[in-house]
Design brief:
Length: about 280
């Protein structure tokens, strides 16, 4: 099972532990000797603490080691982590932990071998080994380090753009019969015969000149209608779209897990930095 740094596994781990930060705690032996400080925590895929990354003090060689979680006892109130029986000689024999190192099965076994009791009777088989195999390293103090998550559901609103319709704007030709009135003029010749004003006057025959072929010409005109078609802009159409804002409210039933703490006996339970006393 791969291991993860606590902050990579849960970026909000401080909130998970009510504001407590295990990486700020010092490591002491049960006898009160300071060994170093907790530099980091390695957890498995289920969020269980498996190793504390200990940055040992100068008196303990000043190197980083992995400490199986079952060998420690965390006291947030005292801001300390206690470990029983960790000596300088033991630290000297432990494999050094380096940042970025790949933690595989063989690496973990080299760590465990530095803490394993000769009387444990454990035979390592990388194909079958699991953390429950050695409760002395991973399970004895598991009651002090159990990690589980409280889940809650929330409504998440997203938007997606879908096509609800389409508007096509075009044009077509319609025909109709139109009429127009044009006044026109036509000329015609009117011939009138009237009594001359000099009627009855005698004209001297010698003065009278008869002329043959005398004619009078009058040009006659008329107007004819000239009909043609002209095209002009009757109307201009502008097509655009506007975005209207609307708010859609959705409701749903969500669930949330809350913490239940049951105690037995006269003890102190500290939660989120507040100490409560419960007596049963």
């Amino acid at each position: 099972m791969p291991l993860h740094k606590l902050e990579h596994f849960d970026p909000n781990y401080r909130e998970t532990f009510g504001g407590d930060d295990i990486k700020s705690l010092d490591l002491y032996t049960e006898g009160g000797d300071r060994v170093g400080s907790v530099a980091d925590v390695l957890v498995d895929d289920d969020g269980h603490f498996r190793y504390l990354v200990i940055d040992t003090s100068v008196n303990f060689l000043g190197k980083k080691i992995l400490l199986p979680i079952g060998l420690s006892r965390i006291n947030y109130a005292a801001r300390r982590v206690y470990v029983d029986g960790l000596s300088r000689q033991q630290v000297e024999g432990l494999v050094e932990y380096k940042e970025g190192a790949f933690i595989d099965h063989d690496y973990e076994e080299s760590v465990r071998s530095g803490f394993r009791s000769p009387s444990s009777g454990v035979t390592y088989d990388r194909n079958t080994y699991n953390y429950q195999t050695e409760p002395a390293l991973y399970g004895l103090n598991d009651q002090d380090h159990q990690t589980f998550r409280l889940y809650e559901e929330r409504l998440v609103a997203n938007k997606q753009r879908i096509k609800t319709g389409e508007v096509t704007v075009g044009k077509h030709i319609e025909t109709q019969t139109a009429s127009v009135t044009v006044p026109i003029q036509k000329e015609r010749v009117l011939i009138e015969r009237v009594v001359p004003t000099e009627a009855g006057n005698v004209i001297d025959p010698n003065e009278l000149k008869f002329q043959e072929g005398e004619v009078a010409r009058i040009e006659v005109y008329e107007e004819t209608p000239e009909i043609r078609k002209e095209a002009f802009v009757r109307e201009e159409i502008r097509v655009k779209k506007v975005v209207e804002q609307d708010t859609v409210e959705a409701q749903g039933t969500i669930r949330r897990e809350e913490l239940d703490v049951d105690t037995e006996g006269n003890l102190q339970v500290q939660e989120h930095g507040t100490t409560t006393h419960e007596t049963i």
